[in-house]
Design a protein that fits this description.
The chain is built from four helices and seven strands. By secondary structure, it is of the alpha+beta class. It has one domain. 40% of the residues are buried.
């Protein structure tokens, strides 16, 4: 198994690579949107890896309960992102206007948190006590990066993915033909639904699979 430093280096080094299949897909099709979304999620993981590399493996907090408003995970990795459009999925209704063809734009893209398409695994670094700052998890604590969900398609306004039965309808966005894209800590993406995702609590046909979310050593 790779060390966390080797994993971070691998993710950063492939930052300039794109899926070879994108150019072969019909632009605007469901398959094209799903592939662009997958590329976006991989880019978000690479940005997070750069944050971890600068913080001795610490994973950016999911939420820091600051006043007057909470600070979410994306605020910690924005400085590592060249193009904020990686935060917007073309299949997400909130992000349609931000994922059109901008090849001739003279003004760089600006981050718009109100159109964010993705959420972070709430179990990675969270605290249910509103009076206490969350203690960030560390990449070194992850037992299996290839099995631990990191980010995925998410509804707004709170960009988090809570792996419980009560939060499926609130947090997850099944925008890819009734399925959602999820990227794992090792950087690979899977399109998942109730048949293969797994939550911490099994219900209504969903399987129980806590290790996808809390895969600690």
């Amino acid at each position: 198994m790779r060390s966390w430093k080797e994993l971070m280096l691998m993710l950063v080094c492939i930052g300039g690579l794109f899926s070879l299949g994108v150019s072969q897909l019909e632009k605007g099709s469901a398959a094209w949107k799903r592939q662009i979304c997958a590329d976006n999620l991989k880019a978000v993981v690479r940005a997070a890896a750069m944050y971890q590399n600068d913080h001795d493996g610490a994973i950016q907090p999911v939420i820091v309960r600051t006043r007057p408003r909470w600070t979410y995970w994306y605020a910690f990795i924005l400085k590592y992102v060249d193009n904020p459009r990686i935060f917007y999925c073309p299949a997400h209704p909130r992000a349609e206007r931000l994922t059109e063809d901008h090849s001739n734009d003279l003004i760089p893209a600006v981050f718009d948190s109100g159109s964010l398409s993705y959420g972070m695994n709430f179990a990675l670094s969270s605290n249910d006590d509103p009076n206490e700052r969350p203690r960030p998890a560390n990449i070194k604590m992850i037992a299996d990066p290839s099995y631990t969900i990191y980010f995925g398609d998410c509804k707004m306004p709170n960009p988090t993915l809570r792996p419980t039965k009560w939060c499926w309808n609130q947090d997850y966005a099944p925008i890819h033909e009734n399925a959602s894209n999820f990227v794992f800590i090792d950087g690979h993406v899977e399109t998942m639904n109730k048949d293969n995702l797994g939550l911490i609590h099994a219900f209504d046909g969903w399987t129980r699979d806590e290790k996808r979310w809390t895969n600690w050593k």
